[in-house]
Specification:
The structure holds three protein chains of three kinds. Chain A is mainly α. In chain A, 73% of the residues lie in helices and 0% in strands. In chain A, α7 packs across α10 and α10 packs antiparallel against α12. The longest helix of chain A has 39 residues. The radius of gyration of chain A is 25 Å and the shape is globular. Chain B has a single domain, classed as MetI-like fold (Orthogonal Bundle), CATH 1.10.3720.10. Helix content of chain B is 68%, strand content 0%. By secondary structure, chain C is of the alpha/beta class. Classes of the chains: A mainly alpha, B mainly alpha, C alpha/beta. Chains in contact: A-B, A-C, B-C. At the A-B interface, α1, α7, α8, α10 and α11 of A face α4, α5, α9 and α11 of B.
């Protein structure tokens, strides 16, 4: 057996990146195609929105034909499609209608770090807390108290995070007034690497993160509970106890380490949903991420922004999935040398 | 490992072990909750005047009976759950809105699981190119957050009804049943009893329906509940953003209107609180069913 | 006989499983002693209780099973009433196991060396890296494993290699007793021979005592010193290998011996007569009487005790009675 000991095979990586690119292209295409399925003329719609504040427009014909010229609406569909794709690669989403003439990419660039930060923190927290809770729930040696307390904490599972967000907001912001109601940092804190700012960010981020974690950790807990229960009955776990290994060591190295594998797979499947949920949480907390941007854009009927955000969110999700997929062979030795996933 | 069980403790363990698996406590509680929810929606209209769901039919901003709002007005018995700022009665709104929310989810998940069964079986059984196409399509679509595409859809196309929304949602609901069924079929295909069926001349559809489908039932139920939950969550998400059906009342829309009218600041907690509570109840019911089904299909979980 | 050290002593062990219709007496009063450097073979059909008995000795019985009564002494220490923690400290150091399915008994996400290292370090504390490696490689050589498997994962090994890894692991702490649960059952004949030879070698080199569970009498005969025969939860005969093959005392042992194919003799294939009973509803008196061609009235009335009919052979059967001069003879009942 002289196989290479390198963890990840080339075909595996190529496969995953291929899927990633395909996902991005299909998503981009969907976003482009769907609006064109309606009978609305983009130029007229744009003019209508811009004119909604004015009331009457002079030279509407001239403006319309200029707009069409500028946005290449006179070109054949296929060419428009390729220009669109080319623009996407450099993240050119056009300009915002509501905040004319700010480029959409600029608006998104301002909101992206906030969304990303929230996303990373809440996904990691839910995953870790959830799997730990599920493992302890299924483990034979857990004291009975925890086995009652944990399910009680899971009562909010599978409730959409917006609802939990509302409840938490009502409880902690309006009633108890312990935590701020909106925004991602206080008005009196100057952005930068100072303690005041960092503290303010944490303060403002607590409720959004909490809303997501409270409702998501239950999913991981349930999954882990089932997986661990199955793993607990496996022969190698039995031998581990016969070997006289310490119970907690067996829990982590023999049980969780094996049960976590399907959970990691599930993570890559769930990221899409978690991101959707987060966008909504941001919108109700007016957190300065892409959720708020989206909510405002819908209100303003700012279509380029909506398109841009949709694409970026899908891109973020696809990248996260790619990262998780590439990480998987590092934890499952059986996959490493086979070059693919069943 | 575990200390020896003696006497009465063993008896108690026995009782848990040998009841019928389908009489699972959690499953029954969950089903009861959902059933009550449905009844509330379907029969409510016979006990309460649902005309009060129209704008301007009731006094504005009344709190539920027994409470006072910021202006010092007290709730009245005629509107036991209060009213909102467009003059709609909350109880009527709930009675009409609750089933709408549930129906969108049911339509989406029924279509989704039907597609999932067809595609999953085809992929698992036929294999080859068909399998490759189905697998890649479902993998790609799982990564795409449904919310974003639906947002794009609705902001360009416009108003959609309940049924249309359900159908739209179903385009994102078939992927996980397909994956699940496909992997189960792939495993089961090699099992002894399937080979026996093939050898004894059973047709493909025979094998599918008589051999495989019965064994897949627990997974199918679990999957159905899971996607029902996801469908409703996504639908509510869209509604809370202001999208979704706009001419018919839904629970999510009520919450949207509440937020848009700054109900939080006006302390009109009933406006967003009651739909939230109803939704929460429904999700808890769905969760219990999910947990119960988990335990039915994985006996090891029953003693936990 | 005599004063050789006894490393494992089991006295009247009873392990019952709770079921809706009453307890299943999977192990009902099993007693035997294992001497240092001895290999005891434990044979019986499926359902005879051999695995249950050894699980009981390992104190690895899980609900709905429970240890009802009995005493287990390992290396002189009475572990029957030991708590989980006390037992855990003695595991593997005193009593080790070669599990039945080596295929599934190794952690898929751990390298081979890590799985042996962890049991060493748990019981002996942190080890110096190169010494630990040398020790593990030495274990490999004892069981005939190549050193390149050191960094491999279980799924990269063949079945026979995995089995030998389990054997190597079992002697890692030089235990007094190793229970080999059907160690050869899942292997081909070539591997069976290799494993059997390995076990013999370990016994000779390290003085480890083995309890070998199996149902292949022929293979057993080549390896073990004594054989204990179990039927439906009871130990019905225990004797030196020569005695049991030349003069099996219990009718059931006779059946087993006769079923071993011979290279020299042509024997007719004789299926056993009589019925096997429902484990929840065992017959009164002797447990074997429903299948025994020699059963008599006394067999339905009382359970025969295990008596030593001569040096190196004990049997539980009413057919064996003392005649006037205190020697046991077999007669009809």
């Amino acid at each position: 057996m002289s196989k290479s000991r390198f963890p990840i095979s080339f075909s595996f990586v190529a496969n995953r990146i291929g899927t990633f690119l395909l996902t991005v292209v299909i998503a981009a295409t969907l976003i482009w195609v769907i609006p064109r399925m309606s009978s609305v003329d983009p130029a007229e719609a744009m003019l209508g929105r811009m004119a909604s504040g004015a009331g009457f427009v002079e030279n509407s014909d001239q403006i319309l034909s200029d707009l069409r010229e500028r946005y290449g609406l006179n070109e054949p569909m296929l060419q428009q499609y390729f220009s669109y794709l080319r623009n996407l690669v450099v993240f050119d989403f056009g300009v915002s209608v509501a905040s004319f003439p700010t480029p959409v990419s600029q608006l998104i660039a301002g909101a992206l770090p906030w969304t990303l930060g929230l996303m990373i923190v809440s996904i990691i927290l839910s995953f870790v807390i959830g799997n730990a809770a599920g493992a302890y729930l299924a483990w034979e040696e857990t004291p009975r108290l925890w086995k009652v307390a944990i399910p009680a904490a899971m009562i909010f599972t599978s409730i959409p995070p917006i609802l939990s967000g509302l409840l938490l907001m009502w409880l902690f912001s309006t009633q108890l007034q312990w935590l701020p109601l909106s925004g991602s940092y206080g008005l009196n804190a100057t952005p930068g690497l100072n303690w005041e700012f960092i503290f303010s960010v944490i303060e403002h981020g607590t409720l959004p993160v909490l809303s997501i974690v409270i409702v998501s950790f239950g999913f991981w807990a349930l999954g882990m509970r089932g997986l661990l229960a199955t793993v607990q009955g496996q022969d190698y776990v039995r031998l581990a106890s016969t070997k006289g290994l310490k119970p907690r060591y067996i829990l982590y190295r023999y049980m969780v380490r094996n049960a976590i594998l399907p959970q990691v797979t599930a993570l890559s499947l769930k990221i899409g949903l978690m991101v959707s949920g987060q966008i909504l949480v941001e919108s109700i907390f007016s957190y300065n991420g892409m959720g708020k941007l989206l909510y405002d854009a819908i209100l303003d009927q700012d279509f380029p922004v909506i398109q841009g955000i949709s694409f970026v969110v899908i891109l973020m999700t696809a990248i996260s999935v790619l990262i998780v997929d590439l990480l998987y062979p590092l934890i499952d030795p059986r996959i490493r040398l086979e070059g693919g996933r069943s | 490992m575990t200390p020896p069980l003696l006497g009465p403790k063993a008896k108690k363990y026995l009782l848990l072990k040998f009841d019928s698996p389908w009489l699972n406590r959690k499953l029954l509680v969950g089903l009861a909750i959902l059933f009550t929810f449905l009844l509330f929606g379907l029969l409510g209209r016979f006990f309460w005047n649902t005309d009060l769901v129209f704008i301007g039919s009731s006094p504005l901003n009344l709190p539920p009976a027994g409470f006072e709002n910021l202006r010092g007005q007290a709730g009245v018995g005629a509107h036991p759950l209060g009213t909102e700022s467009a003059g709609r009665d909350m109880l009527a709104l709930m009675i009409v809105g609750a089933p709408n929310t549930l129906f969108v989810g049911i339509i989406a998940s029924v279509i989704g699981i039907a597609i999932g069964i067809v595609l999953g079986f085809s992929a698992g059984f036929i294999g080859g190119r068909v399998d490759a196409v189905i697998r890649v399509t479902s993998d790609v679509m799982i990564t795409i957050p449904p919310l974003m595409v639906l947002v794009v859809f609705q902001t360009s196309i416009g108003e959609i009804g309940i049924v249309m929304m359900g159908v739209l949602l179903s385009t994102f609901m078939w992927q996980s049943p397909t994956r699940l069924i496909r992997s189960q079929v792939l495993t089961m295909r090699e099992e002894g009893y399937v080979r026996m069926a093939r050898l004894s001349g059973a047709t493909t559809s025979d094998i599918m329906f008589k051999e495989l489908l019965p064994n897949l039932m627990p997974y199918l139920f679990g999957s159905f509940i899971a996607i029902l939950t996801t469908a409703i969550v996504t639908a509510v998400g869209l509604e809370v953003l202001g999208l979704g059906p706009q001419r018919v009342p839904t629970l999510g829309r009520a919450i949207y209107e509440a937020i848009a009218s700054a109900a939080l600041l006006k302390n009109m907690w009933w406006w967003w609180g009651i739909p939230t509570a109803l939704l929460a109840t429904m999700f808890i019911g769905l969760l219990m069913i999910n947990l119960g089904l988990d335990e039915v299909s994985n006996p090891r979980l029953r003693k936990l | 006989m005599g004063n050789e050290q006894i490393v494992l002593s089991v006295k009247d062990l009873r392990v019952y499983y709770a079921s809706r219709d009453g307890d299943v007496k999977a192990c009902d009063g099993v007693s035997f002693d294992l001497r240092r450097g001895e290999i005891l073979g434990l044979v019986g059909e499926s359902g005879s209780g051999k695995s249950t008995a050894t699980s009981g000795i390992l104190k690895a019985i899980t609900p709905p099973g429970r240890i009802v009564s009995g005493q287990i002494l390992i290396d002189g220490e009475d572990v029957t009433e030991f708590s989980d923690d006390d037992m855990r400290a003695r595991r593997w150091r005193k009593l080790a196991l070669i599990p039945q399915s080596a295929m599934n008994s190794l952690n898929p996400t751990m390298t081979i060396h890590a799985q042996i290292a962890d049991v060493i370090e748990t019981h002996e504390g942190r080890q110096e890296a190169s010494a630990l490696k040398a020790r593990i490689l030495d274990l490999f050589s004892r069981v005939g494993l190549p050193s390149r498997i050191y960094t491999m994962y279980p799924h990269e090994l063949s079945g026979g290699m995995k089995q030998r890894v389990c054997i190597a692991m079992s002697i890692a702490l030089n235990p007094a007793v190793v229970i080999a649960d059907e160690a050869t059952s899942a292997l081909d004949v070539v591997m069976q021979r290799i494993v059997a030879q390995t076990i013999l070698k370990i016994k000779e080199d390290l003085g480890v005592s083995f309890v070998m569970i199996g149902h292949d009498m022929g293979l057993m005969a080549q390896v073990v010193d004594r054989i204990a025969v179990m039927y439906s939860g009871q130990l019905i005969e225990i004797a030196d290998v020569r005695h049991i093959f030349q003069q099996p005392a219990h009718p059931y042992s006779q059946m087993l011996i006769e079923s071993v194919p011979s290279l020299t003799e042509r024997k007719p294939l004789r299926p056993s007569s009589g019925i096997t009973h429902d484990p929840r509803n065992p017959p009164s008196g002797c447990i074997f009487r429903l299948r025994c061609p020699h059963a008599g009235e006394i067999c339905a009335q009382s359970r025969p005790p295990l008596v030593e009919i001569r040096s190196g052979q004990s049997v539980a059967c009413h057919l064996w009675q003392k005649n006037g001069s205190e020697a046991y003879v077999r007669s009809a009942v």
